[in-house]
What does this fold into?
Amino acid sequence: MRRKKKWDYYKNSDKAMTQKTNNNILEVIQVENLRKHYNGTYNGIMALKGISFSVKRGEIFGLLGPNGAGKTTTINILTTLTPPTSGVAYVNGYNINTKPDKVRASIGLVFQETTLDTHLTAEENLYLHALLYGVNKKDFITRKREVLKLCELWERRKSPVSQFSGGMKRRLEIARALIHFPKILFLDEPTVGLDPQTRNKIWDYIFTTKKQKGTTIFLTTQYLNEAEACDRIAIIDYGKIIALDTPENLKKMIGGDIITLRTADNEKAFAQIKEKLPQCKIKRIGKEIQIEVATGEEFLPSLIKTITPKILSLELHHPTLEDVFLELTGRKIRENNTPDTEDIFSFNLKSLLALFKNNNHKNTNGH
Ligand code: ADP
It folds into this structure.
């Protein structure tokens, strides 16, 4: 009997995957034990140390991690720009090792750096891309209008890209990546280096693309508030996935809300809380009392009623993804955080998210 060769294994598993895809499987990306070793000085670098995960059809999936964690390497492997050292991944049902052309035809990709031809106009850049992907002329005309309108560049379609700002270029890159109707859109740190307003706009397009076309979005980010906007996130650190879930579940992992309290007589307040509110975890840290409860807002009225010493300060802290990362690694995700920009952006993104969810809800209810 003929021995099964490695190729047979690939062929058979590819067939099985394609069948599964045709049957509308939920997982449009499946990653199995991917490793990537870059050769270099000494022993080189093991950028990915065996990562596995899957991405569901139609979700916004984020890969969150600090600089050098392995995010770009992962996206480069999944989009067939670099081969893995070992392991396999299926994108839209196609094996990245054996069917790279099929993978490429079914995805859109936005790189971290601009890859537009700045001597060409916006629409010429789209046309070139459409030619490469074999989009027919009729489809191109309707699609060009659609994607340029989506990214608010329709009025500037005849301008050379050299006259565009950084934000406009990034928007055009998204439009270009969508021109051939990809099932999955890969975005490598799509908003890095952009001002908060442009970052919000980019997110607006991401939500709209998902909503209108059901496109699956796979993105990498080092911004915590962007990770919050994803349906699920994988946290990657030193080439390993250290957690994967919805942002809400990840935050639940580290416990409840934290209330930090200072009173005129902490000893007395501490004793009163311990006696009358035994359901909370309480400890004294320096001049403060720290209380951990499931839902801070619900607990605050009874706390205020219970303690008699004058309250000097009271702070309610909901767990953040930063707390999750800190809990898992003992480090902050970005040592040189820029809180001002993040805060403004966070505020705007939250409003945008609320608006989006609201509209979505209305649509599904047929309003
Ligand atoms: P991230 O996108 O999370 O910042 P990368 O995937 O770019 O991380 O890099 C992961 C690790 O692999 C880093 O230590 C980086 O220096 C290294 N690396 C990335 N690309 C190469 C390359 N082409 N050659 C050698 N080392 C690389």
User: Anything to note?
Assistant: Residues 1-23, 337-341 have pLDDT under 50 and may be disordered. The two ends are 64 Å apart (CA to CA). The longest strand covers residues 27-38.
